[in-house]
Amino acid sequence: MTQFASPAPAARFAWWKPLLFLAVVLIGLWYVKWQPYYGKAFTAAETHSIGRSILANAADSPWRAALDYAMVYFLAVWKAAVLGVVLGSLVQVLIPRRWLLRLMGSNRLGATLVGTGFGLPGMMCSCCAAPVTVGLRQAQVSSGAAMAFWLANPLLNPATLVFMGFVLGWQFAAIRLVAGGVMVLGIALLVQRSVPETAVAAPLLPHESHERFVTRWLRVMWRLFCNTIPLYIVAVLLLGAARVWLFPHADGAVGNTLFWVMLMTIAGCLFVIPTAAEIPIVQTMMLAGMGIAPALALLVTLPAVSVPSLLMLHHAFPPRALWIAFCGVAVSGMLLGILALWLA
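Structure tokens predicted for Permease (344 residues):
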């Protein structure tokens, strides 16, 4: 009697993977972002301050300034930076790629809006959001959706808007919300139309689907770490030294003129700060005499892009996309400052 082998059962979908990713996201963001920011909002409401400017008391020596700034900066962001690398690697190994492609894989406005929405609860600075953005791009998310996710994290951060309202005034928060929304969608759509997806797609290698989860995750995380963090550290040190020249008048008066709008716009696009650090920076400089126009330019450029964050994305986007992001933020900051000058 001939016996026939029964067909192999179809592989079951591993529901534990997306559930594990969701758990890491919720626990990580609660510990690193949501819970600390909840308490900080009450502090901002009561004291109209969220702390000292990170640019205060800059050393005259560039090397001393670099070390001092790096220490203060990394103490403020290291938890979020670690979480960013973890999430950027886990999104590649726990979330089915077809899910990401269905939500964020097209070149339509809907995918860009989804990327923007996913960026809102992250509340990360541009550097800490960069590893997650790299992970999304490695999973073949469209350039527009990934760019929207990256820019929405710092520009549309709900906690930052609340802090800004209590510290600087709700008119500043409203301007930041409107300008940030225009910047996120506008720049993301420009990048989407300008970047050929086939040039940056990272296909799944055949052996990756057969690797054990932990093995693949550690390999992906190590690759992500090597491609982002070393450049990040070096760039922060260099900018810490350069703040002696980038913000030479941080403790003095900055006039309400086109010259200062342009200067603050350029400095804001180059420099790197932790989440919401633009608020005490602008508060301190306005108390020292800085005008409204350069203040608004700083409020939209400081959090949006920086040299370290752009360097961290050099494997995820082609140079053209990063230049569009940099120039888009710079032009937006300059136009906002010019509009403030015109209305003054």
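The chain is about 70% helix and 0% strand.
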